[in-house]
Every structure is written in structure tokens, then in C-alpha cells.
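Model it.
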Amino acid sequence: MNRLQANLCLICVTLCWSTEVIIFSCIPDSVLPFATTCICNVIAAVILGACFFKRVKSELRRNAKKILFRCLLLGLLNSGYNALYLYGLKYFDVSTGAFTFSMTVVVLPVVLLTMRKSVGAKTWISVILVLLGIVCALGGNVKGIHPMGFTMILMGCIVRAVFIVKLNDFAKEHDSVALSTLISVFVAVISFVIWCFLQPSTFATIPWSSTIIASLFIHAYFIIAFAQTLNIFAQKRATAAESTIIYALEIVFSLIWGVILPETLIDRVIPTPFHIFGAVLIVAGSLIEIIEFKGKRRIVHDTERQ
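Modeled.
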């Protein structure tokens, strides 16, 4: 797999993730997000473990202590940024909160520099375009942003940026399926602990129905088992910067779903000119990061010859 193919895989992953808003609309608000996260990750871990038991076992034999520690770290980071996002989102409407959470793209270069990783000029240009797209899409809502909500989401963006960088590093050293399976296990355990603390009766509080069960299984299979594994596989070739900037397209896809899908599936969205222009800027920023320019290739070839 070359880098372009890896980036196309990341776009497919982002497309899958953007459908979460449709799936979650079928789950009542009385069901805590930590409950959904726990159940879906348990299902995903069982599916992956059952289908790829030998690969997971082989990776654990190779270096169990290292991969378990790394997956625990990724599980904690994943649970941390999701918790900060979920509680920060209470201060915003869905569209404003979603665009604000895309600020991960903005903090990523700072996180990369802090970890002593290089950031290319092309990445800075992409980040600036995506940032302009986010600000433009938020429009007049920027003045009304709640300080506490913004702080929590900003902290979530920082934690998510660290998660993406570390996942990108670990994906290059471990089997994708094994990494995905073990991350799901740790996220499920961490989410269950938080769920027990917030709602001790846990499973008994869920108003079980065929719709809820179907939604949980769909989310577990397509969003976690499939998309998460494909994401880790793609990150073997893609960079952390490319991944984060491509992830910003999730907002664009979500906006499209809100426009074209019927109200029986999702709340109808009427995009403003600011939303459309902001989405165009985000797409432009992503394309700049993805596209390999000929000039850059020539410089690389000349350097290799020398």
C-alpha cells in the first residue's frame, strides 16, 4: 500500500465515522454515551477476536508486555478525549460543537513539535485552510462560545492529537487487527468502570428494543471493528498530520448527511453560505495534504541520486 492508497482508506474511514450521528439518533438520550461505548467495544472485540484469534495470539507472543501497555495507553487517551468532548458538547449545539472539535487539526502541529517531530510547510498550509474553514463555518457563533465548554473541547483536542500521534507510531510496529482488538478491549473496560460509577445499575437501565440492539451492533461492526481496524492499517503508511487533516472531512460528510437524508433518520440541516464556504476550505486543506506535488518528487529523486 502506497501513501495515496492509505489516504484513500482514511477517507473511507472518515466516511464511516460520519454516519455515527445517524446511528446514535436511534439510541435514546437516556442511554449514557459510556454505556454505548462499552457495549459497542465489547461486541467489536469479540468479533475481531473470534475472526482473527491466531493473529492476536501471535502478536501477544511476540511482545505481550509492550503491546498491552501501548493499548492501555491508547485506551486511556481514547476514553479521555471522548469524555471531554461529550461533556464539552453540552455547552454547544451539535453543529457548533462538531466544528469546534475539529480544532484537533490546529493543535496537532504544536503536539508534533512538542514530541520533536517535524512539521512540513504543506501541513502548515493545510492546517491554516482547515482552521479558516472551521472559523467560517462557525460564523457568528464564535462570539457566543461558552468558555468552559470551549476549554473542555480544547483539552479534548489536545488529548486526541496525542492519541493520533501515538497510534500512528504504534501502527507501524504492530499487527493492525491485534492492535484494534486490544484497544477495543481496554476502551470497553475503562468505559464500563466510568459507566458503573455514573450509573451503578448499568445494563438494567437500558430500554432494550430491536432498534437499540441493531444500532449497537451496526456501530460495533462498521464504526469500530471495520473502520477502526482499517484506520490503523492505513496509518502504517500515512502520517499523523495526514490522518488528522483527513479526519476533519467528517464534519463535511456529516453536513452532507444532514442535507440529503430524510428527517426520519437525522435532523434536517439547512446549510448557510458560511457552512458551505467553510466546508470547501476544509476539503481544500485536506487535498493539499494528500496530493503529492511533482516538484517535491523531483527533489526527493535528486537527493536519492546524490
